[in-house]
Amino acid sequence: MALPPLTAAAIELRADAADWRAAVGIAGSVLERIGAATGSYGAEMVRMIEEHGPYVVIAPGLALAHARPGPEVRADGLAIVTLATPVTFGHPHNDPVSVVLGLAIATADEHLAAVAGLANVFNDSSAITDLAAATTADEVLRIMAAA
Amino acid sequence: MKIVTICGAGIGSSGILKVNAERVLRRLDIEADVVAADIGSLAQVAGDAQVILTSAEFVDAIGTTFADVIIVENYFDTDELTTKLEAALGE
User: Fold this and answer.
1) For the residues A125-141, what does the mean pLDDT come to?
2) Which of A3, A84, A123, A143 has the fewest CB atoms lying closer than 10 Å?
3) Helices (H), B29-77
4) Do the Cβ atoms of B15 and A111 come within 8 Å?
């Protein structure tokens, strides 16, 4: 199942985050705002990174924060957060991060169609820098249209 | 041939690796079954895998394996995936 259509409510631009935990927490708040997750999902995403390391920084400048399907997930959803000041996650190659995606997936079986859309967008290497530079939600929606 | 992509949750990043690995393999005309999994279920899914695609963070947890472990830096860079898969598969 593909992700539900992206809306302006799922986008937070030029957010202030002191560190990666705060940045991931903002992505969690956005997922809560759009009804995709409960208020504790952000902490769950942080916990995944504390447990496994900064592997979620899957491309230069981009973190794909996510936790497992579970009781904190209400519906499939994607949050897009750009940071006023990039933060470091401790990744050996892809720091600093200026775009944090928060992904909530209700059932593991259905996540591939959702992330295939993300691959469509971000396999274009300019998408991350374009998102980081976006100043309006409309720009973000245009960049993400390929998903 | 079986290829396993590994991340912490078994969704998200391993899914992106699966999708992009399949795109690259199609371009290389290589037939393979690509499975996304979390590090906790590695033992069940990777026993018969020839290649494991993952991030540097999981190499220690993967431990000893007969599979080629490929560390991917940029999950969206299909050129990087192409080069590394070609090298591992001896094309």
Assistant:
1) 96
2) A84
3) 42-46, 59-62
4) yes
Compare CB distances from A64 to B13, B36, B73 and report the shortest one's residue: B13
What does the pLDDT read at residue B63?
85
Q: Which amino acid is at B80?
A: E
Whole-angstrom distance, CA of residue B89 vs CA of residue A43: 40
Task: Walk me through the domains of chain B, giving residue ranges and CATH numbers.
Answer: 2-79 (3.40.50.2300)
Collect all residues from B whose CB is shorter than 8 A from any CB in A. 7-13, 15-16, 18-20, 23, 36, 38-39, 54-58, 73-78
Report the CATH superfamily, name and number, of domain A8-146: Mannitol-specific EII; Chain A (3.40.930.10)
pTM, two decimals, is: 0.93
In this prediction the ipTM stands at 0.89
Structure tokens at A108: 């593991």
The tens digit of pLDDT for each residue in A15-36 reads 999 999 999 999 999 999 999 9
CA A65 → CA A110, B31, B80, B86, distances in Å? 18, 31, 22, 29
